[in-house]
Design brief:
- Keywords: Cobalamin biosynthesis, Glycosyltransferase, Transferase.
- Catalyzes the synthesis of alpha-ribazole-5'-phosphate from nicotinate mononucleotide (NAMN) and 5,6-dimethylbenzimidazole (DMB).
- The protein folds into 2 domains: 51 residues, 5,6-Dimethylbenzimidazole Phosphoribosyltransferase, Chain: A, domain 1 (Orthogonal Bundle); 271 residues, Rossmann fold.
- Helices cover 48% and strands 9% of the residues.
- The chain has 13 helices and 6 strands.
- Strands 3-2-1-4-5-6 form a 6-stranded parallel sheet, with helices on both faces.
- The N and C termini lie far apart (49 Å).
């Protein structure tokens, strides 16, 4: 698979933004992450006064064969029901995106739905993945098709004027996928990574742990072969999100990463093209144990700590106003020079 070109961050814009931030009427570094975000946004956009007001959310949807192994508290049909909920504008991501002034784009890359609502973007690679407790979840060709869906989707959004992206997902069973991928890539014990997902009881939690361990023993994933690992224990929506991150970086677009599933997709994207990391902002740290492991592996500092674990890009949508705040301080705050004072910084 041929990867798109990704430019390095613009050092000149970052230096100019740093100079501006350090001249504002406040103690040095007193706005914390907002300052760091403003400077990196300058590097991404190539402008010391970045403009990211045009926002979009992409929700990649797909079903998972591994759900047949009883790893979720919810039935498989919920994926399709939630796709309809997105369409009706009644899901959490719809509400939160509306507050932030962002449009939501729902992409079906692999659900079991046979009749897809008209406003859903139909990019289905196949009807769900295979059960990776028994066989590889996907072929490499299917993985590459799903990645391309994400790349192409962001390319279209860029042409429509989108300047800031949030990426999320929907797919029953996908915390199992995210945990398996995290264990495969990081080598951490499965027991340290498994979370409760949609609300598993103790017995189901242990069953989920056992299923993941058995699958990893079956496939023996090689962490240095990310496409192969995705094919073995991944998901179609995870591959599509990885493509979206690659597409955003290629388009020079900052992108907000959501929870554990969104973040494992970001990890895959960075494994494929390390420069993607420069374009990622971690919106929050979820309660899923694997999420912190992934954030640390990516050297990303989460913006929000609110005990979230929903997915859908809900945490990413909540972070939109903080990105706006980072831009606003650079654009609108006075400098010491504006007040006729020497800069103590």
């Amino acid at each position: 698979m041929k990867w798109p070109n990704i430019n390095p961050l613009c050092i000149e814009a970052m230096e100019a933004a740093t100079k501006r931030v350090n001249s504002l009427t406040k103690p040095l570094h007193s706005l914390g992450q907002l300052e760091k975000m403003a400077i990196r946004l300058a590097g991404i956009t190539g402008h010391p006064f970045p403009e990211v007001s045009q926002k979009a959310v992409v929700v990649m949807c797909g079903d998972h064969g591994i759900a047949k192994a009883g790893v979720s508290a919810y039935p498989q049909e919920v994926t399709g029901l939630m796709i309809h909920n997105f369409v009706n504008g009644k899901a959490a991501i719809n509400v939160l995106s509306h507050l932030a002034g962002a449009n939501v784009h729902v992409v079906d890359v692999g659900s079991y739905l046979e009749e897809i609502p008209e406003v859903v973007i139909d990019k289905k690679v196949r009807f769900g993945t295979r059960n990776f407790a028994e066989e590889p979840a996907m072929t490499q060709s299917e993985v590459e098709q799903a990645i391309q869906v994400g790349i192409d989707m962001v390319s279209q959004l860029k042409k429509q004027g989108v300047q800031l992206l949030a990426v999320g997902e929907m797919g029953i069973g996908n915390t199992t996928v995210a945990t398996a991928l995290t264990a495969a890539f990081t080598g951490r014990p499965v027991e340290e990574l498994v979370g409760r997902g949609t609300g598993l009881d103790d017995q189901s939690y242990q069953h989920k742990t056992d299923i993941i361990k058995q699958a990893l023993a079956l496939h023996q994933p090689d962490p240095e072969k990310p496409l192969q690992v995705l094919a073995q224990v991944g998901g179609l929506e995870v591959a599509a999100m990885a493509g979206a991150y690659i597409g955003a970086a290629s388009a020079g677009m900052p992108v907000l990463v959501d929870g554990v599933i969104s973040t494992v997709a970001a990890y895959v994207a960075v494994k494929l093209i390390p420069r993607v990391q420069d374009y990622l902002f971690a919106s929050h740290q979820s309660v899923e144990p694997a999420h912190l492991v992934l954030l640390q592996a990516l050297d990303l500092q989460p913006i929000i700590h609110a005990d979230l674990c929903l997915g859908e890009a809900s945490g990413a949508a909540l972070a939109f106003p903080l990105i706006d705040a980072a831009v606003a301080i650079v654009r609108e705050m006075a400098t010491f020079a504006d007040l006729g004072l020497p800069n103590p910084n």
